[in-house]
Each structure stands twice: as structure tokens, then as C-alpha cells.
Amino acid sequence: MSSNDLLHRFLFDDCDIRGEIVTLGDSYREVLSHNPQAPAIHRLLGEFLAAVSLLSSTLKFEGKIILQARGDGAISTIMAECNHHNSLRGIVRLNSDIELSDELAQSGNLQQLLGNGVLVITIEPQRAENFGGTIERHQGIVPMDADNLAGCLEHYFEQSEQLATRMWFAANNNTVTGFLIQALPQQLITNEDDNRDKWETVIALADTIKADELLELEHSTVLYRLFNEHPLRLFEPKALHFACSCSRERSASALLSIGKEEVEELLVERGSIDIDCQFCNQHYHFPADEIRQLLGGSVLH
Questions:
Q1: If residue 194 lies in a helix (H) or strand (E), which one and from where to where?
Q2: Burial 155-180 (b: 16+ CB within 10 A, else e)
Q3: What is the pLDDT of residues 137-196, one digit of tens each?
Q4: Is 171:11 a contact under the CB 8 Å cutoff?
């Protein structure tokens, strides 16, 4: 598990504000190696990975959080997910009917690259029963009403969770960092004006952070530079890593799910069937005799 892929949570002791900061190195580069794309697309994929890492920090059950966008622009699909094992993976697919301009390839933002689209957060439990209660699969629609991912997610938290939230992302070819500040339900400060003043002060300080500082400095250094005059509690870090959940068994199940007749037609046409994982490029080869066993021995030959 890589030591340079870390998420820190922190809490202000004198006000109702919490935060998180995550930096991804090895896992980010591993995802990019399976998604050879233009620089702007790589950076956006990195932001999705950092965002889903931040969102997963409060995951209290066995399952995963998925952040996915679909659009009619140069990018047709972009997705990142993180599970309770702190495993990350991501993927991006382009629209074959749209040519990516040099300008967009270098500096395109979320709206420019996706066009008209929809952003969805999915919380997907692995088991129906968790901690004595049932956790349902949940999807939240995030309006793409900002030109960047941070703005879209900030609006989502404000509208659906009623939590004031600010997010910052920075990415280059090797590293991506995500930074979150979020208001908590009022407990320490009950006066509305005082609470608002604290929030505005913290956000004003956080807004001074520069992209190169987020990418190059240790988390503790970033937080000290920003908030050294405020009592802040930094929790032990959580390590993240790249991992794909694909397997030969899951590939076999996917093969069977397309239907017996379709599988028979593929086998007659090709003699065997090959499946490649889109996330990690793992190759699974299914010879005819194995497929016959899967389908109960009734495949045509």
C-alpha cells in the first residue's frame, strides 16, 4: 500500500468546521496508465479520483462510492470509485464522433469536455445488512451548473445535504490533490453571526492556497500554513491504493448475462471468447470447452 497516497481528516476545535485533504500519486499514475488521454482529460480524471476519495472518507459500511459523469461532448463517460477497502479505480471514454481540439486537450474544463451532461454520485452497499440495519443503494444527481467539478459538488452539498462546503483540486502529470472544508451542524458556536464569521475566516484562509502548494507540500505543512492561528486536530491518515475488482468469475458472470443465444453465436463465430477489463486491462480468455460447461454443455459447435 503506497505511503504517498494518503487522506487526512481534520477538525477545528473552536468551531463547527471539519476538513479533509487527500493526495494521490501511485494510484493516480496507475489509473492514467490504463487511460492514455490528453493532459486536460488526465487532470479531470485525477479530480474525479480525488473527489471520490474525499467522499468515501465517511463510508461506514461495506460498499463503494461512485462518481460518474456522462455527456455529449468530447468525453462521453468519466468515472471514479472508491470502496471500503480504500481501493480506487477510474476510467474515461471519449465520444468517437467528436474531435478533441488542441486547446481543449490542453486546458479544457469539465463543461467544455463533457458538454451537456449529468453528474451522479452513487452509494452502493456490498451487503444488504450493515450494522444491524438495511442500507439502500442511493443515487444523487449533481447538476452540472459550474464549469468545474469543485463547483458542481459544492452546489450538491449545499442543496441536498444543507452543508456549506468548499472544495479545491490540483493535478499535474504525476499527482492530484483534493482539499475539502465543510460546515458541521452548530454545536460549539450557537450564535448565527459568530458561526458565519468563523466560516468566512476559514474559507478566506483556505482560498489563499496555491496549486503547487497542494501538490508539493506535506498535508501537515499545508494546514499549518493556512490555519496556524486556529486550534486544529489532525487525525491519523488513511492510505489509499489502486485496485480493480475484476476477476475471472465476474467476467464469466458478465458473459452469461448477455444471454445464451448471443454467447453461442459468438462462440460459433470466434471459437473462443476474450474479455478485457476496461479499468485495468486484465485479459480473460474463455476457451470453448469452458464456455460449454458454463452454459450446461449446450453450446453449438
A1: helix 192-206
A2: bbbeeeeeebbbbbbbbbeebbbbbb
A3: 788 888 888 999 999 999 999 888 788 999 999 999 999 999 999 999 888 877 888 889
A4: no
How far apart are alpha carbons 287 and 199 in whole angstroms?
61
Q: Which residue's entry shows cell 487522506?
A: 7
With both helix axes pointing from N to C terminus, report the angle between 26-33 and 39-56 in degrees, rounded to the nearest 10. 130
Q: Which residues contact 137 (CB under 8 A, 6 or more apart)?
A: 122, 123, 124, 125
CA proximity to 70, closest of 80, 79, 62: 79
Strand partners, 83: 64
Taking alpha carbons only, the member of 22, 79, 108 closest to residue 278 is 79
Look-up of cell digits 499514475: 29
Distance CA 82, CA 265 (A): 36
Q: What is the pLDDT of residues 205-232, one digit of tens each?
A: 999 999 999 999 999 999 999 999 999 9
